[in-house]
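anyone seen this seq b4? input:
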Amino acid sequence: MARADLRYTAWPEPRQKTKMPSPRPTLRWQLQFLRGFLGGNRALTGPHTAIVDVTDRCNLHCFACPRHAPDAPKQSARPQDLPWDDFQKLCRECQTLGVAKMVFIGQGEPMFNPRLPDMIRLAKSAGMALVLITNGTLLDATAAEALLSAGLDELRVSLWASTPEEYAHNCAGNSPELFARVVSGLKTLSRMRRERRQRLPRIVLHRPIEREFFHALEGMLDLARDTGCDALSFSPLKPLAGMHRERGLHPDEEKQLIPILKRLHSRARKCGLATNVPETLRRYHIGEQVWRSIPCTMGWIDVRIRTNGDVLVCGTCQASLGNIHNSSLREIWNGAAFQRFRAAARSEQTFSALAPTCDCAFCCHASTNARLHRFLRWIPRRGSNTTLEPRCNF
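predicted toks r here
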C-alpha cells in the first residue's frame, strides 16, 4: 500500500475545546536544545522529560508486555521497586537539570509501589509536572484519594478494551472481572475530583489499536464519556521484539481505520473530549520502520531510569548509558555513551549501529521526531559528520 493513502496532512486537525495535556518546552529550553543539536552531540540543556520506572511488579499478563506476557523472555532479575533513597536523589538531580515533566511508568504496575503518593509530592515540590501511566486495576477510592491529595497532574489508564467481551479476548491471561474494576475506578476518581472541585489530575483513557476490534474503537469514546475522562488517546500496536506482529493492522485495514478515527475525532470534539487522533494517523503514515525516514532526537529530550538505576534514552532502546548508582544524572546525560547515541541516531546511515539494542517499530516518539526533522533538516550543523564515531558498544 502506498503510504500516501494515510497522509495526515490531508486532514488538518480541527479545533478542540480541550487539548491533550502536555507541558510544552519553554522558549529558553528550545533555543538551548537547538544550539546543542546544531553544535555537535553535547546537550546544552537538561532533558525535558524523565520517565521513571517505579516498579517491575505487576498483576497482569498482557500479551504485548515485554516482561510479563506469558511468552515474554524470562527475566534474570527479580521484580523490584525503585528504592526511595534513589528516587530522592533522582528528584534533586532532575531539579538542578531543569526537568519539566516526570512520567511514572514501569515494567510493571506503578501503583504497586507503596511510596507512590510520596514520590508524586516530592517530584511536584521539585517543580515537575507529574504523569502516572497505569493499568487502572488498583484504582479504588483509597488510591483515588491519595492521588488527588498528592497533586498528580495527569492519570493515563491503558485499557485494551471498551467492553467486557473485548477485554476477555485481548487480556486472556487476566481475570475478566478486572475490566469492571478499571471502569469503577475511573468513575470513582472523576466523581471525587468533581466533589473536591479540582481540575487535576486530567484523566486520559488510552487504547492500543489491534486487528480484532479496531472497527469498534468508537466504543472507547462512549466509555471515556461514561467514566468522566478528559481525553482519549490511541497508538498503533507495537510489535516488541517482533512478537505478535500478526495482531497489528494490515495495510488495507489501515485504510479502513482512517474514517473510523475521523468520525471518532469529530464526535469527541463535539462533547469536549481531547484526542490524539491526528498524531495516531501521523504514526501510521510514517509506518513501522520509522528509522527509514526520520532521525531520532530523543537523546536530546528524554531520559528513562530503570528500577535498578540504569539510565536509557527510552523504554525500547535497551542499552544502558549509565547508572545513577555510579554517576550523577548530569554526568550521564552528557557522558560519552549518551553522545555516541546522539551521533548514531542522527541519520538512517548511522542508525544501524543502534539496531541491536533499539526496537523502534511504530516508535511512540515518531511524531515528535518528524516535527523536529521537518525544521532541523534545513539547518546546517557544525560537525554534521558527527564528532564521535557511532558505535553500538555504549
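The radius of gyration is 20 Å. The chain has a mean pLDDT of 85. kinda curious what u guys think
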